């Protein structure tokens, strides 16, 4: 059974901007450009019945589309850095969506994610990288920023065990409604969630 999580996809233009941050850091394993994403909620290894139940409830989320931009860079692991990331501009809609997904997972009895939600895009995993090298890498790229983009959906992704993250696969997609469209919440075109497997 694959590991599953909810995420936001990164549009092509912003992914290309992120790809320009690759290189110049010894010991970094760079994430493939096609695997860039913002994790909303890690769910983990679940059975097929639970996965279908997750899909059923995620499909009921009715939230508006919103704007995001990627800004700044940073590292996880102060004295032993283990990942480089690009930051995400603060957006109340992002935190509201993540909070609703988290509440659904808790209601379904899924284990809570012990980490505080910190929206980011992982750029590289680090192994044996010196702190000084990380400091120099980040100081040269601290003013990174992309153009804003519209988040029109969130996805349920799966990952297989591998080194360095990925490959990731979109299993289901859940549209967010256009807040300027008065008819976007019309339930007449509602479709039940199909089975994930």
TrEMBL record:
One of its GO terms (molecular function) is ligase activity. Keywords: Hydrolase, Ligase. It catalyses: a 3'-end 2',3'-cyclophospho-ribonucleotide-RNA + H2O = a 3'-end 2'-phospho-ribonucleotide-RNA + H(+). A motif (HXTX 1) lies at residues 37-40. Gene3D superfamilies: Cyclic phosphodiesterase. A motif (HXTX 2) lies at residues 120-123. It is an enzyme of class 3 (hydrolase). It comes from the Bacteria. The active site is at residues 37, 120. Hydrolyzes RNA 2',3'-cyclic phosphodiester to an RNA 2'-phosphomonoester. PANTHER family: RNA 2',3'-CYCLIC PHOSPHODIESTERASE. This is RNA 2',3'-cyclic phosphodiesterase.
């Amino acid at each position: 059974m694959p590991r599953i999580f909810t995420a936001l996809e990164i549009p092509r233009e912003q992914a290309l901007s992120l790809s320009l941050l690759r290189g110049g850091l010894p010991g970094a394993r760079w994430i493939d450009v096609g695997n860039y994403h913002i994790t909303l909620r890690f769910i983990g290894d679940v059975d097929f019945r639970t996965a279908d139940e997750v899909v059923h409830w995620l499909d009921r989320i009715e939230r508006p589309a919103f704007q995001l931009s990627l800004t700044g860079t940073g590292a996880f692991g102060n004295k032993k850095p283990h990942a480089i990331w690009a930051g995400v501009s603060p957006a109340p809609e992002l935190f509201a969506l993540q909070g609703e997904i988290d509440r659904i997972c808790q209601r379904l009895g899924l284990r809570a994610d012990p980490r505080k939600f910190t929206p980011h895009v992982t750029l590289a995993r680090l192994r044996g990288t010196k702190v000084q090298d990380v400091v120099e890498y980040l100081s040269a790229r601290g003013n990174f920023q992309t153009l804003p983009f519209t988040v029109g959906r969130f996805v349920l992704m799966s990952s297989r065990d591998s080194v360095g993250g990925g490959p990731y696969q979109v299993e289901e997609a859940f549209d967010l409604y256009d807040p300027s469209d008065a008819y976007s919440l019309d339930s007449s075109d509602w479709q039940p969630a199909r089975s994930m497997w």
